[in-house]
Amino acid sequence: MPKQIHLAAHFPGVNHHTVWTDPSHQPDTQTAFASFEHLARTAERGKLDFLFLAEGLRLREQRGQLVDHDVVGRPDTYTVLAALAGVTSRLGLAGTINATFNEPYELARQFATLDHLSAGRAAWNVVTSSDAFHGANFRRGGYLDHADRYERAREVVEAARALWDAWAADAVVADAATGVYARDRSIGLVRTDGRLVDIEARPTLPRPPQGHPVIIQAGDSDAGRELAAQVADAVFSRHGSLEEGRAFYADVKGRLARYGRSPEDLKILPGASFVLGDTPAEAEERIREIQRQQVRPAVARAFVEQLWNRDLSDYDVDGPLPEIDPLVEAPSITQGRAATFKDPFAVAATWRALAAEKGLSIRELVIEVIGRQSFVGTPEHVADEIDRYVQSDASDGFILVPHLTPHGLDEFVDRVVPLLQERGSFRTEYTGTTLREHLGLPAAGHFGRTLDGVGAADEALPVA
Ligand SMILES: Cc1cc2nc3c(=O)[nH]c(=O)nc-3n(C[C@H](O)[C@H](O)[C@H](O)COP(=O)(O)O)c2cc1C
């Protein structure tokens, strides 16, 4: 049997992936329940592993102005996923929630609730947030540097897992004859004394159906990859090309052994988009049009300004890249979620060389460098490629990012999924009921375990 492909559906929000200028996109498309319901039902019809929500907590500001085309209008993750639990029965429900500004007790309780409501389909994408600008939302502007955000994320996940483990799996007996609801000494106390997470708590909720909701991690630095190796069940990566994907896959899976884990314990799922056509030429024509809608002039200018760290409003985006250099010493013109460039001079030099080689304008250059992995072609070609990438260990599957909300996944489910099923590399029916089962992950945790720095269930009180 070929290696099995795992697929998820991303609900992308308003950014440079979403063609919100399409006539099908209405002002309430990003917030109406019908949108989420359509994507979820389509994903479940296609037997996908899960639906995925990203998190955008604050509108980006650039040159002192709001950037209106980036992560606008993302509703609250828990509320959306809880509502979707009611209209789906097998699809996993994954939500991005940052570990920097949220508290482990609340996080554990919210994901346990989602896991209960959905009968074992919850997943938490643990992010650390890309900059401290978001902290002001929580009266914590500038809170924690990069290294400490990851340290906190690890401590938060470990505390959440201890909380999920604090009720014995068979704690609730609800015995009418004896009047006992919870079994004696079956609800433990969790005490953590980490550097950044220090709690003492006894959860009020029974153990989640999955034991632990699935943990996803998105973050690409060395610290991010290490956190994934240590605590995650899946990684949402941006390395979707064949070569980069294989290097990332080998790197992250290679880190697992030092935590006593095996390669199949962690699934690597890069983001990928797709554009289908009846012929290769039609698909090519479609993607060119889509890219021009995704990278409209304002998007192209904002992106280049992030690297140059300057006002480039006088530049024609259909003309050449600026000849002046990026400003590196000055304070950043951007606050909030944005592209980050470690060495702006080197990146500018690469972009200039690429633009010169291919004769690209600013806008064409941005189209070239901003895109994520895209499978473009006939359904047969797209199915071949996805399968080839997975079979050659560039990934364990993909988080699909449709460019149209909410109908963009329809044609993939109708035209590509059946071809993957014919190959035997994608399920024709769900064989399990929980997301952990869909992903082929081992069962999670147990009551009374001890973790480094975390004592779970260490004081289980008698039941009155
Ligand atoms: C593919 C991918 C998706 C991400 N999605 C989100 C998101 O939805 N919300 C968010 O706040 N951060 C998101 N992040 C940001 C990361 O969590 C992380 O905070 C950021 O990348 C900085 O960590 P790093 O230096 O390890 O990459 C994402 C990162 C990656 C690689």
UniProtKB/TrEMBL annotation:
UniProt cross-references to CDD domains, sorted A to Z: Nitrilotriacetate_monoxgenase (cd01095)
Stretches assigned to the Luciferase-like domain: 24-392
Any one GO molecular-function label of the UniProt entry: monooxygenase activity
EC code: 1.14.-.-
Signal sequence extent: none
EC class of the enzyme, as a word: oxidoreductase
Official protein name in the record: NtaA/DmoA family FMN-dependent monooxygenase
Keywords noted in UniProt: Flavoprotein, FMN, Monooxygenase, Oxidoreductase
Similarity comment text for this entry: Belongs to the NtaA/SnaA/DszA monooxygenase family.
One Pfam family this sequence matches: Bac_luciferase
Species of the source: Cellulomonas chengniuliangii
